Each structure stands twice: as C-alpha cells, then as structure tokens.
Amino acid sequence: MNEYKPCPKCEATGGKVMSFTWWGGLVGPKILTHVKCPSCGAQYNGKTGKDNTTGIIIYSITVMLLVGIFLIIAIAAVITLMTMG
User: Fold this and answer.
1) Which of 7, 9, 34, 69 could form a disulfide with 29 if both were Cys (CB 3.0 to 4.6 A apart)?
2) In contact, 7 and 44? CB cutoff 8 Å
3) Is residue 24 helix, strand or coil?
4) Nearest-angstrom CA–CA distance, 80 and 74
5) Are 9 and 42 in contact (CB under 8 A)?
C-alpha cells in the first residue's frame, strides 16, 4: 500500500519524498511532504495530492524572516560590543 496520494497530473502511484529542494533544503520537503511522481516527474503534496506552491511560498517567507531577524540581532550585538570597547 502506498502512503501517498496519486499524482495529480497522471494519477500514477508510488510518489517518493524528495530529500532536497532548492527552496527548502533538507527540511522543507519533509515539512510539506513534498513528493515526486516516478512516472511524470510532477512534484506535489503527498498527503493532499495537491500543488505545494502556496506552502513553498509560506515556508520560504518564514525562513527569510527568521534569518533576517537573526541577522538584525547579530548586527545589533556586534555594534553594541564595538561601542562598549
């Protein structure tokens, strides 16, 4: 029994979870259950059988915001240390 929905484009079963993507690295595909159809190569959400574009956009924006906040905090810490010395 296949644990993922059939491909929304060709209805083939046997989708495989992608281990790495340009947008999500190693973590994003696992969070979104991003699978690739072995027949036609379409990529989709294995749980819902639908396109992952909205999830990818939300994931990417969230990661960018977290990285931006981290950078702001790091830069503020460096500036504080430089002005104290």
Assistant:
1) 34
2) yes
3) coil
4) 10
5) yes
Specify if 26 maps to a domain. Answer: yes
Amino acid at 83: T
> Which of 36, 34, 81 lies closest to 59, judged by CA?
34
Residues of the chain with pLDDT under 50: none
Enclosing domain of residue 60: 16-84
Please answer whether residues 23 and 61 qualify as being in contact, where contact means their C-beta atoms are separated by less than 8 angstroms.
Answer: no
pTM of the predicted protein model:
0.79
Could you give the number of structural domains in the chain? 1
Per-residue pLDDT, 2: 66
What is the model's pLDDT at position 32?
Answer: 95
Q: Is residue 2 part of a domain?
A: no
DSSP string, 39-83: TT--EEETTT-S--HHHHHHHHHHHHHHHHHHHHHHHHHHHHHHH
